[in-house]
Amino acid sequence: MNILLVLMIASLMITTGFAAEKETRCFEMRTYYAAPGKLDDLLARFRDHTVKLFEKHGMTNVGYWVPLTNAENKLVYLLAYPSREAREKSWKEFSTDPEWQAVQKASEEKGKLLTKGVSVFLAATDFSPVVQPTQEKEPRVFELRTYHAMPGKLDDLLARFRDHTTTLFTQHGMTQLGYWLPTEKKDGAGEMLIYILAHKSREACEASFKTFRADPEWIKVKAASEANGPLTLPKDGVESTLMAPTDFSPTK
User: Fold this and answer.
1) Does 73 reside within a domain?
2) If residue 207 lies in a helix (H) or strand (E), which one and from where to where?
3) Is 128 within the bounds of a domain?
4) By the 8 A CB rule, do 212 and 169 touch?
5) How far is the C-alpha of 98 from the C-alpha of 125, rounded, in Å?
6) From CA 84, how far away is CA 81, in angstroms rounded?
7) Distance between alpha carbon 214 and the CA centroid of its chain, in Å?
8) Contacts for 58 with CB less than 8 Å, ≥ 6 apart
9) What are the residues whose beta carbons fall under 8 Å from the beta carbon of 48, sequence distance 6 or more?
């Protein structure tokens, strides 16, 4: 292959944030709901102990976020493991670690910190960039987006992202952290696409999507892809949550 062409391809991958290698790890997105008045205590436990213990037991801390509007006292975080089997081993060792047991007991002397925890296992799509913790000089605003596809339309939705949407997102100033599909097909998870974008600010997010939606190429692509009907559910088909990274998040 011509050396100039190789350099051009490499440059494009760096610019768009996408890598030639495929992301094959097992991911887990966990959402914790803190008890009333306990979110700061929960964050302190993660900051001072939990993230280090996760690393000790072979887990990769990708990112930790709290929603900008957080009436439910949520903490959202993303972990990566070499495999699902490695995940099970890591959590077993973590939960039986005497240090963790002591930390958990001490932190809950005045009551439990959590009311609920939700876990979703994820596999990266074939068009996802390799997911790596990244930081900018100024903390960014992150956007967790969940698409609920119409029955039988998930492949068409993925094709639109693969062939068009990801490129257009880059053109309109959005940074793409990763794209995932739930691995356990329950509660409608078999028709879901989950991804995370990064923006310089809330205002930058709004500006990027405004220009993206007005882009003639996007308008053309959307119309062509939906010639036989919409790809996402008409009601609550697209969920968006803007989030701020915690001070201890590897991704900011």
Assistant:
1) yes
2) helix 202-214
3) yes
4) yes
5) 37
6) 7
7) 25
8) 81, 82, 86, 89, 90, 93
9) none
The pLDDT of residue 134 is above 50: yes
pLDDT the model gives residue 13: 44
Give me the domain span that covers residue 180.
22-245
- DSSP 8-state class, residue 62: E
Predicted local confidence at residue 184, as pLDDT:
83
Nearest CA to 147 out of 175, 180, 183 is that of 180
Rounded distance between C-alpha atoms, residue 119 and residue 99, angstroms = 23
Residue 235, C-beta contacts closer than 8 angstroms, at least 6 positions apart: none
* Coil, helix or strand at residue 34: strand
Residue 153 covered by a domain: yes
Burial of 230 (0-12, 13-18, 19+ CB in 10 A): middle
Give yes or no for a contact between 239 and 146, defined as CB atoms under 8 angstroms apart.
Answer: yes
Domain count, the chain: 1
CATH number of the domain where residue 195 is located: 3.30.70.100
End-to-end CA distance of the chain: 38
Over range 119-146, report the average pLDDT: 94
219 within a domain of the structure (yes/no): yes
154: pLDDT strictly greater than 80: yes
Interaxial angle between packed helices 216-225 and 202-214, expressed in degrees from 0 to 180 and rounded to the nearest 10: 70
- Distance CA(172)–CA(71), nearest Å, equals 31
